[in-house]
Structures are given as C-alpha cells and as structure tokens.
C-alpha cells in the first residue's frame, strides 16, 4: 500500500512539476519578448567611428560639442531612427572617413564653415550627379584611389573648381560612376592617340 501511495504521489509530483515548468517557460518567454520590444535595436559597430568604445565616445562628444547639438539632433530617443539631420550627418561621416578628417575639417560650428566648405559642397553635388560616394575617389587624407587620380586630371583640364559639376555630363553618364558617354569615349580615344597609346 505504501508503494502504491508513493507511486501516486510521484505521478502528482511529476504533473505539478510539469505544470510549473510550463508556466515558468511561458512567463519567461513573454518577458523576453517584451524586453526585446522595449530594447532599442542599436548596434554600436558604427562604420564611421573607429577605435575603442572610449575613443568612439570621445569622437561623438567632440562632434556634438563642435556643432552645439545633443544626441536627439540626429537620433530619436531610443536611438533606433535617424532624424533628417541624422541622415545628412551619416553622409557627412562617410565623407570624413573617406577623406580621413574629422568634422572640424569643414565646420566651425553648426552654421559656420571654413573656406573648404564650398569645395565640399561641390564634391557632394558631384557624388550625387555621378552616383558615387566619397570613397570612390578618396582613400584618406590627401590620398586618392586610382579612379580618383584619373578624375583629378579631368578636374584640372576641365576647370571643375570654377566651372562646376554639370559640365562633367558632357562626357559622363549621370549616376553611372563616371561611365563615359559616346562623346567621352571619343575624347578619351583622341587623348590616347595623342599620347601614342
């Protein structure tokens, strides 16, 4: 009789334990899902900020101090969405990485710029017209990619600094990463012929 009582209690114990585990799993899963919903989906592996966490935080502090802005200038409060200014800032940060410079290369503060800012504006316009990013031509401070070296020749010979980007479309196809149109190929072949290539 004692064995039968122990078997019956064992079955009850197993059933109660199973129910308790099931309830706990359900609670734990719903709590985890709720935490996931409340946790911003932010990664700190930002391609624009290099170095240790401390170095990246110091760069962000220098940038926000220089521009006189808070985090919510570029981010929503959960750090999950960029504001319009944040989207623009991402483009600026790509440029700063490609050029190997920081924000103070062009910015004095949020509304004041250094002399090279006009050239930067022209470069951003050129990038837009040609469908490229800064790293298409730039490989760090005062360094150019091979394609950037070729472009530099055209910039000098075609007076890009004074004449502007629109004249590039005389030889290039818009938003095609400097792909040549028919006239551009004629000019290139003529130049090759003159050089005996």
UniProtKB/TrEMBL annotation:
> Which InterPro entries does the protein's record reference?
Multihaem_cyt_sf (IPR036280), NapC/NirT_cyt_c_N (IPR005126)
Start and end residues of each NapC/NirT cytochrome c N-terminal domain: 53-113
Q: Pfam families, from UniProt?
A: Cytochrom_NNT
Q: Which SUPFAM superfamilies match?
A: Multiheme cytochromes
Give the top-rank taxon of the lineage listed in the UniProt record for this protein. Answer: Bacteria
Q: What is this protein called?
A: Putative heme protein
Q: What is the lineage of its organism?
A: Bacteria, Pseudomonadati, Planctomycetota, Candidatus Brocadiia, Candidatus Brocadiales
């Amino acid at each position: 009789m004692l064995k039968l009582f122990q078997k019956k209690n064992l079955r009850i114990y197993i059933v109660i334990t199973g129910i308790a585990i099931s309830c706990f799993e359900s609670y734990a899963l719903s709590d985890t899902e709720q935490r996931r919903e409340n946790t911003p989906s932010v990664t700190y592996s930002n391609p624009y900020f290099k170095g240790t966490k401390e170095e990246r935080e110091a760069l962000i502090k220098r940038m926000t101090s220089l521009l006189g802005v808070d985090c919510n200038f570029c981010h929503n409060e959960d750090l999950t969405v960029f504001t319009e200014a944040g989207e623009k800032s991402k483009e600026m940060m790509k440029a700063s990485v490609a050029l190997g410079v920081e924000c103070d290369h062009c910015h004095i503060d949020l509304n004041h710029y250094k002399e090279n800012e006009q050239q930067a504006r022209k470069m951003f316009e050129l990038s837009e017209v040609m469908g490229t990013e800064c790293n298409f031509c730039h490989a760090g401070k005062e360094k150019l990619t091979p394609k950037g070296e070729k472009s530099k020749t055209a910039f000098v010979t075609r007076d890009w600094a004074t004449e502007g980007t629109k004249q590039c479309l005389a030889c290039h196809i818009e938003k095609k990463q400097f792909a040549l149109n028919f006239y551009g190929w004629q000019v290139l072949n003529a130049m090759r012929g003159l050089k005996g290539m």
